[in-house]
């Protein structure tokens, strides 16, 4: 069974084509900086080499067209025709309370994803673009939705209920949902394997740091709290999102700038975060480069981001009454030695010490804390795509069995 995994982020698109008979990745790739002039598309067939294209990818649909063309390309492709793809697994950011586990995609599922656009405006539209593009390019192929929110359904009520009139939860399901669940689940399980301990005995804080960023407190293998909330806007400062701020700022700005709710939502989701502070970019690589050139606002943007991560880690240590391991993952978490060092330097009270030499390693599974560090610091490249492929296979196989039996 060949499964194509589509993972549409707010400004990126990851994909993998996986032969699930042996979980071999036939091809994988990444479209970065979608919507910017310096977009980059990378396609790697069978891990042998990389095809890199630079230019402008105006949206996710254009990126998906390039993905499909690359998979069947005479020189760089790995299949002869798109009909060799047996199923597609889609990462879906927000399922609200409609779904708490993965599900076979039909019209009702698409409608539910659309209903959640108002609370996930950067991601759910991109997810729907991916679904619709695959429908056109792969007609009749079954597709599965794997929701970011599913892993966080184990949060206790005191963690996910907001201190608002309870009627808003009853009427509108206003509560914390959390996101990046597939990534947090995957890297926490890998951390337990690396530490050679049962995950049921560990307290882990996972730091998914990229253009979108979130932390999760994982106790005994279950999510007990996470920084993102009702929408992916809550929590840390991010690439273009403000994260948690005083809610009164919203109404204050609406009055001062004479703007409506849609305009202020645009500011909070697409013009804030490190982009808003630095004035340089939403891409942390660009901001780090600006810091090297002496840009003080770029430095402030990084300092704000690192401070928010650091203080959130501290709150989750309190929530779990301790921590055994802190895991860094995603684009920034896997690659930025500067970010990891800056965050960990303020956590020495936990008996945590970073090894500078090991911290310089990029995109590898590695313990970057010193041997005597009481808290282990681990870098683990996330593999949401493999986790999604496994879920997709399980759903498809079960669906086939159900049809045979009933």
Automatic annotation (TrEMBL):
Residues given in the record as ATP binding sites: 14, 208-212, 283-285, 331-335
Where is it located? Cytoplasm
Q: Which InterPro entries match?
A: Ac/propionate_kinase (IPR004372), Aliphatic_acid_kin_short-chain (IPR000890), Aliphatic_acid_kinase_CS (IPR023865), ATPase_NBD (IPR043129)
Keywords from the UniProt entry:
ATP-binding, Cytoplasm, Kinase, Magnesium, Metal-binding, Nucleotide-binding, Transferase
State which pathway it belongs to.
Metabolic intermediate biosynthesis; acetyl-CoA biosynthesis; acetyl-CoA from acetate: step 1/2
Q: Which residues bind substrate?
A: 91
Give the GO terms filed under biological process for this record: acetate metabolic process; acetyl-CoA biosynthetic process
Q: Give the residues annotated as active site.
A: 148
Q: What is its main location?
A: cytoplasm
NCBIfam families registered for this protein in UniProt: ackA
Family statement drawn from the similarity comment of this UniProt entry: Belongs to the acetokinase family.
Task: Name it.
Answer: Acetate kinase
Which organism was this protein described from?
Alkalibaculum sporogenes
